Amino acid sequence: MRISDIAKRARANLASVFKNPAGTYRQLKRVVRAVLGYARGMLDYPAAWFGLSRPRDELAASVAELLIVGFYGSNTRSLSARLLARQIHRGEIGGVFFVNQNIGSIKDVKKLLRLFRAGPNQPLIAVDHEGGIVQRLNKSHGFTQLPAAKRVAARMSPDEAQKLYTIAGQELAALGFNINLGPVLDFDNPENPAIGKARRSYGVDPERITAYGEAFTRGFASAGVLCAAKHFPGHGNSVTDSHHGVADISTSWTTAELEPFARLFASPHTPAMVMIGHLRHDSLSPDEQLATVSAPIVTGLLREKLGYQGAVMTGDIDMDAVSQLMSRKHAIIQALAAGNDLVMIKNLFGYDPLLPQHVVRWVREAISQGVLTDAQIKAAAARVRAIRQRIGPGQADP
């Protein structure tokens, strides 16, 4: 992103503050943080661009598989997008994810996807494409507008939903995306700010949630787009939104919220990935850690008790729920130690052009200190490579 683009966005957000001070103050504060962090990060940009002193051993290659990273801007003029593409091409980073601010015109999206896919290493390219208000590519981009999950469950059978999701998957795959960050398997609670109020849940009956979750997974997978079921172990009954702080489910969560995950894992269409929510549950995690960095939840509950064998991914660790509690370094290392395979890092607040080099160094330190093992990193990388093999070369438009 150019400095002029940052200034333009900052002015737009400043104008919105005067229209709605209470609703946009937080957004403005985030923009200021992003601008300052970007400016500081640019000091390391030349070293990152030329790959000075970048590690090239087997451990570094494994760590690269585990990183799925965001970028600034919505077109190929973005300096961070260009650097991220270069790091993907050199094998320093394994994936990229798009959020709202990365989606401009369909022409710009196509150019960005070509930029990321241009090298020898084909990245994981992820986007939220649930439907309703969580659909980054919509009718304005020539995409089928998907209803929110709650409406799908109310008006369609699972078979009808699967046909709709298949069409949506074909549209994503044709553009070049290969990962959809969905389906949502959380329970519906109308008071929940993150799930219920946005109508992102299929209901409260585990069997019904599973049926539509399977339709979602099966439809997108049939088009070559793999899915990440979320938000384990269940975000639906929280009273806060993890985008803006810790979502404590210690007193509101019930074991029934595990059932949609367990049922989908036992189906013929197990999702390739599961996303861990930035959720706190003091009984499930006696060390009072967020689920994202909790070995009892990621390894003990998800892996061992429910038997999930696919790849486990974090939500964006730069979200407030995590960043307010720990440094990026601590979050990455603890997430990997807990059993996650993919770590999502927006790299927006505190932009770090040398992120891949830093993560490799942090992992080496953690291995030397006994926090991680070389075998853990290799096993996680192997699960991510298995996902790549299922995706194939893709069908992006020229």
Proper CATH architecture of the largest domain: Alpha-Beta Barrel
Instruction: Write down the overall mean pLDDT.
Output: 92
N- to C-terminal distance: 24 Å
**Which strand order do you get reading across the main beta sheet?**
1-2-3-6-7-9-11-12
Written as H for each helix and E for each strand, in order along the chain, the element string is: HHHHEHEHEEEHHEHEEHEEHEHHEHH
Number of strands: 12
At CATH level 3, the topology of the largest domain is TIM Barrel
Q: Give the overall form.
A: globular
Structural class determined from secondary elements: alpha/beta
Radius of gyration: 20 Å
Number of helices: 15
Contiguous uncertain segments of 5+ residues: none
Per DSSP, what share of the residues sits in E-state strands of 2 or more residues? 5-15%
CATH superfamily of the largest domain: Glycoside hydrolase, family 3, N-terminal domain
Biggest beta-sheet profile: 8 strands, parallel, barrel
What is the helix fraction of residues, given as a range?
40-55%
Give a structural overview.
The protein is α/β, with parallel strands linked by helices and 398 residues long. The protein has 2 domains: 1-50; 54-391, Glycoside hydrolase, family 3, N-terminal domain (TIM Barrel), CATH 3.20.20.300. The protein is built from 15 helices and 12 strands. The protein has helices at 3-19, 21-41, 45-50, 58-65, 79-89, 106-117, 149-155, 158-175, 206-222, 259-265, 295-305, 320-323, 328-338, 355-368, 374-391, and strands at residues 67-69, 95-98, 124-127, 129-131, 134-135, 179-180, 226-232, 247-248, 273-276, 279-280, 311-316, 342-345. The strands form 3 sheets. An 8-stranded parallel beta barrel has the order 1-2-3-6-7-9-11-12, surrounded by 4 helices. Strands 4-5 form a two-stranded antiparallel sheet. The protein has a two-stranded parallel ribbon with strand order 8-10. Helix 4 crosses helix 14. 48% of the residues are buried.
